[in-house]
Design a protein that fits this description.
275 residues; mainly alpha; globular
């Protein structure tokens, strides 16, 4: 009995240390971001890069309104809508259309997407290595949010429907499509829309703090899955901080892709992971 209590205490101390270490890392990022405010144009955009203006603000407002209407409609349904392969293809095409629309508007306005998003600011290898470190640091914070959700709102699964769809898919082709969408398409399109564009516009007109909080709330709510809202909000904050700190959208894209990959492994193959 004493051995079990001691083991449990050691485990709780270890978890607490992990959470404190994660907080220390992200608080350090916040401190460095705050310190940059005294030096103009050294974060995401530079003085030589044209930034977002009124047309981008109007487009961002339209996208936010569309997302909010979709969120309200989803939570107003009496029964949940179950995804199928056709829904995934439709979502994929819609994501491509939104990304193409944003990119077209920015190009017509003479805005350098590469310079503003920081694609060439870092190499892919460095972006992935940075993403691994920051995602590992975010994991304890996401786990805390998950635990609080389970404690206060019941034990409903936080798995998003795409994981259930993956488990129930009957063919290899369907699983490959789901993996590609979750690991490649969703991270690129969602980070481009939420972090690069919507957050970029909010940051331009409302500041980093308001932009970060609103963008993360919108990101969590847009997934229209209440049990995973708190973990997704924490994840959105970590993605945004990673983008703001690094100045490259590649870092948050890599983090998003790695997170989705881990989610598919841990939630779609729980018995394999336990073994």
């Amino acid at each position: 009995m004493f051995a079990g209590a001691f083991s449990s205490a050691v485990e709780n101390i270890f978890i607490a240390l992990l959470v404190l270490a994660a907080l220390a890392i992200y608080l350090t990022l916040i401190g460095q971001i705050s310190a940059r405010k005294s030096t103009p144009d050294v974060t995401i955009s530079s003085s030589s890069t044209r930034t977002f203006g009124l047309p981008e603000a109007l487009l961002a407002a339209a996208l936010i309104l569309f997302l909010l209407l979709n969120i309200v409609a989803s939570f107003g349904r009496s029964s949940p809508v179950h995804l199928n392969g056709r829904d995934l293809v439709a979502n994929f095409l819609l994501s491509l259309f939104v990304v193409f629309l944003i990119a077209t508007v920015l190009k017509l306005r003479g805005i350098d997407i590469d310079g503003l998003a920081g694609f060439s600011k870092t190499t892919l290898k460095r972006a992935i290595s940075t993403a691994i470190v920051l995602l590992l640091a975010a994991a304890p914070l996401i786990a805390v949010a998950e635990g609080l959700t389970q404690t206060f709102f019941g034990g409903e699964s936080s798995k998003q429907e795409i994981v259930d769809l993956f488990n129930n898919s009957g063919t290899i082709q369907e699983r490959v499509m789901i993996i590609v969408l979750a690991v490649v398409v969703a991270p690129i399109s969602e980070e481009f829309v939420f972090r690069f564009f919507i957050y970029g516009v909010l940051r331009r007109y409302a500041g980093v703090t308001v932009g970060l909080l609103f963008n993360s709330l919108l990101f969590a709510a847009a997934h229209t899955h209440l049990p995973s809202a708190a973990p997704l909000f924490v994840l959105g904050v970590c993605f945004t901080l990673a983008y703001e700190w690094s100045g490259s959208i590649l870092v948050s894209m890599a983090m998003h892709s790695l997170f989705n990959s881990a989610q598919l492994v841990f939630l779609a193959f729980p018995q394999t992971v336990q073994q």
